[in-house]
Structures
1.
Amino acid sequence: MRLGREQVLRELELLPMWKLKQAALQTKAVPQVAAEPASVAEALPEASALPSIMEPSSEDRNASIAQMDWQALQSCVSHCEACVLSQTRTQTVFGVGNPNAEWMFIGEAPGMEEDQQGVPFVGQAGHLLDNMLLAMALQRGQNVYISNILKCRPPENCDPHRGEITQCAPYLQRQVALIKPRLIIALGRVAAQSLLNTQENVADLRGKQHVYQDVPVIVTYHPAYLLRNLPDKAKAWDDLCYANSVMQGLKSGVSS
Ligand code: URA
């Protein structure tokens, strides 16, 4: 039995596609000679439904961020739309302090006040962090740079999602590469686990030297946690004394 044209197309499951092309032909003037598509977007009639094809791969994005100078990085962060947090933020929070600092403190993510002011650690936790710095004879803006794992506030201050951390990671990597701090202090579980790519908790990570991008890292409790768990302030103080002794060792070329 000979099948008709429509039956063949149906058997090959080509009929809906054929109809689509017909519809396209009806709405577009058809050039005599098919022009080369000027872009992949033109070649793919439904390209808008495939944004991942049109966007630079994450490798391209990471490589381009890894080349940026400080100003370009700041501007790139301020326009970032790589994750959903860009839709709810008031503004990005890049970091604060001396970009040539020897000390770098890294927290989790901006909270409500940070989101409004565009500066990290300005709320109650920030006040405690400033006091911790003072106790170490440090001051924000002098020999210290303060930043966060995430540059945008997660709504309701919920824990950052893995995808958000992944999208934001190249920014912090570049900040660390440009600042070249002697020592990083990871403040709290999210900062420590993200930097060190581990599931271990703060209690287990404290009191040891770890490494992030060749820079020694010391882990301590997050100031917001300390505000809720006052007895652990003594442990945080131990951590800061340990950090001070590591810094002295780094400066004198002796590692502890
Ligand atoms: N908590 C953080 O981890 N970072 C901030 O900037 C503020 C609060």
2.
Amino acid sequence: MTATRIIEASDENYKEAVKAACELLAAGEVVALPTETVYGLAANALDAASVAKVFSVKERPTFDPLIVHVSTRAELSRVAIVPDGIKHTVEKLLNAFWPGPLTLILPKHPDIPDLVTSGLPTLAVRQSANKIFRAVGKELGQPLAAPSANRFGRISPTSAHAVRQELDGRIPLIVDGGACSEGLESTIIHITAGEKRPTITILRPGPVTKEMLQNFGKIERPKKSRDPGSPCAPGMLESHYAPRTPLILLENADDFRPETGKKYGLLSYTGEPGKGYTGLYPWTIIEALSPGNGKLPEAALRLFHVLRKLDDAGLDCIFAEPVSEVGLGVAVMDRLRRASKQV
Ligand code: TXA
Ligand code: MG
């Protein structure tokens, strides 16, 4: 058991937090840091022993590779190799979306320990838009391997409090940078050169949507694969983002068969009386993704937060309303399907 300290770091006053995080990271420790998507559990990506701690703290199987975060564009060449055939596309994508929630799968640099990529020849890499996260990487002078700061398969944390719920007593430090501004993990893409246009395969939908990517290439969704190590299947085999309470995605109201004496909660899109499934049942609790107005960015931002609230409410089952699968709705539905183990 390690005593877990939380240091608050506002945008203006974060130097002390950055220093404390760097001291621990330099000593081979792991530290929870805010990113714009979800909180990450960071380690020096070039130090296999530190990376091994990330897997053990999260109870993550070593066949599930980590994302590496660079603090500058120049650092990309230390961790990955950009093939000539896609150089131009990569450059355009980075100009458009970095720093930000877009992760690229690229051939790995030999200096990156195999543990980071679970033995794959490719590496997942992004540059976070969060100032605190980037400042830590810069001051440490090393790329940071950082998966979401939750125990394996559980709901990703979007606040320091949620990180504490997940990892209290397992890590020495959580840097509290406030609530994440996106709330969903980064979009993960793989790029292949084409004769006319490159193909962009969206391996994990996220804040950078298909609509935002389609100017850069032909968009594809991956074929499902049975091989857990396959680059076409990030996080696809395990149930992910899952509350402990069973969750059912109610695509059709006719499928709702309540049992008597059970406590049911509703994850509603707007939460407004008379809308969606709010009137379908005397729910013990209703949580709204986007209270009142039904806006997708707000729904994405609140998803993991409200899932945690419903999970803590002592329910027998959580029922979720579907959201429309356009724009950010694709990523929201992806997480809901995984939470309901429907993938
Ligand atoms: O927004 C995010 O991406 C957050 C923050 C902390 O940056 N990180 C995050 O990491 O979501 P994690 O470890 O929870 O999810 C990384 C996903 C996993 O599903 C993993 O399978 C996939 O990325 N991945 C990593 N390396 C890969 C590779 N070489 N090929 C295909 N998928 C890979
Ligand atoms: Mg994760």
